[in-house]
Amino acid sequence: MKKLFSLLVLCLCVFHLQAQFVSMQIVEAYSPKNDIRSISFDKAGNLFAATYGGVYKQVNTGWQLVSDEDTYLESFLIDGAGRLWMSGWGKGVYLAEKGTQIFERVKEIPTSANVLMEDMNGHIWAGLWQGGVMMGEGNKWTNFAVKDNNLAGNSVLSLACDSNNKIWIGTYLGLSSYDGKLWTSYTVNNSKLPDYIVYALAAGKNNRIWAGTCKGVTLLNGKGEIEKTYDTSNSPLSDNVIISLVEDSKGRLWVGSYKGLDMFDGKNWKKYTTENSNLPDNRIQVMTLHNNKLYIGTSSGISVIDVK
């Protein structure tokens, strides 16, 4: 009887360990449609997933394709006006007006965007490959590049907007910020930034910024000063190459890498991988918060965890 009780307790512990996430796929097969590049929600709460096989909207019957199926997506955005923005690799940036699924190319943007973002003023930012960053205000677009501004690099990998509407730009050659007038850049040569490549950015409480690099995750305080870098040598971080970041409403940092998902509450770390949870994949490509839930895009589908 004692052995049976012990076995039951062990089974319950294993179930609890393996059941943190609710997972879903666009199709129940190995497919580029399950390679999630972006997760967005419209004002009605509808979930949109941008993949390497098009953009899909979650509906009662499953998933509805809202773009060309062969669109190899890198970035996707639903702005405050309900318009859909997307950029496929090498195909430029496309826009569909609210209530339509008719995507038309934004002619003012010369190339595809690695990342798309809307700031607090409703301006659209597009981080380009070798073209700097472009800011759209209505039909007017302004290009910011290394040549004329203090942008760290012209190949933009990540964007974030802090609570003061300062724009943060991660590139292959460092990190930059722009407050509407002044530019500031951080590199390994002029700051404590541990690496040139900034794959991910996240804005947090007290106007802080998290920067995900190839040598860990770096914290910048509200004054724009680099306070600390967490890496595998000074923390339980799963990997030094950080590809996605988000800070939740409780101030907890969620860190995505090629080796799983880490959560840091300011004191303690918690690790989630395919080995100790029901995550479908250890490659954590994108994360989005919605209604106290964290939506995690992997190369094998979407996982959701409650973060109340």
Structural summary, described in words:
6% of the residues lie in helices and 46% in strands. The chain is built from 1 helix and 28 strands. The longest helix has 17 residues, at 2-18. The radius of gyration is 20 Å and the shape is globular. The two termini are 38 Å apart. Residues 1-17 have low confidence and may be disordered.
The major beta sheet can be summarized as: 4 strands, antiparallel
Number of strands: 28
Instruction: Give the termini separation.
Output: 38 Å
Total number of helical segments?
1
The gyration radius over C-alpha positions equals: 20 Å
Cα shape: globular
Helix content: under 10%
Mean of all residue-level pLDDT scores? 92
Uncertain residue segments? 1-17
Order of secondary-structure elements: HEEEEEEEEEEEEEEEEEEEEEEEEEEEE
What share of residues are in beta strands?
Answer: over 45%
Coarse structural class: mainly beta
Strand order within the widest sheet? 1-28-27-26
Task: List the keywords.
single chain; 308 residues; mainly beta; 4-stranded antiparallel beta sheet; 1 helix; 46% strand; globular; disordered N terminus
How are the SSEs placed, and which strands pair?
Blueprint: H1 2-18, E1 22-24, E2 36-41, E3 47-51, E4 54-59, E5 62-65, E6 73-78, E7 84-88, E8 93-96, E9 104-105, E10 113-118, E11 124-128, E12 133-137, E13 140-144, E14 156-161, E15 167-171, E16 174-178, E17 183-186, E18 198-203, E19 209-213, E20 216-220, E21 226-230, E22 242-247, E23 253-257, E24 260-264, E25 269-272, E26 284-290, E27 293-298, E28 301-306
Antiparallel strand pairs: 1-28, 2-3, 3-4, 4-5, 6-7, 7-8, 8-9, 10-11, 11-12, 12-13, 14-15, 15-16, 16-17, 18-19, 19-20, 20-21, 22-23, 23-24, 24-25, 26-27, 27-28
